[in-house]
Amino acid sequence: MATKKKSSGRKYGAAAGKQVETEMHEFKLGKLKSGRSGKKVTSRKQAIAIGLSEARKKGAKVPRKKS
User: Fold this and answer.
1) Which of helix, strand or coil describes residue 33?
2) Domain range holding 32?
3) Integer Cα distance of 23 and 55 in angstroms
């Protein structure tokens, strides 16, 4: 009976974390705006999603979006 080893390791790279940190800072200052509409971001989750998206565009280690 072979047991399957749990995959351990970081989900996100350091660069992705730094990008999220930057976006959260803007969010807290009230200067973070969303994509095309340019409306002010109101939720923390949205701010984190924007940070991860930006990191993904820059080529940082971020898993693919679940579709």
Assistant:
1) strand
2) 14-58
3) 10
Q: Tell me the per-residue pLDDT of 14-35, one tens digit each, with 9 for 90 and over.
A: 999 999 999 999 999 999 999 8
- Cβ neighbours of residue 21 under 8 Å, at least 6 residues apart? 51
Strand blocks (E) in 1-67: none
3 belongs to a structural domain: no
What is the rounded CA–CA span in Å between residue 18 and residue 27?
14
Instruction: Match 């002010």 to its residue by tokens.
Output: 40
Compute the distance between CA of residue 54 and CA of residue 19 in angstroms, rounded to an integer: 7
Number of domains in the chain: 1
Q: CB of 50 within 8 A of CB of 22?
A: no
- Look up the pTM and report it: 0.77
Cβ atoms 8, 1 nearer than 8 A: no
SS3 10: coil
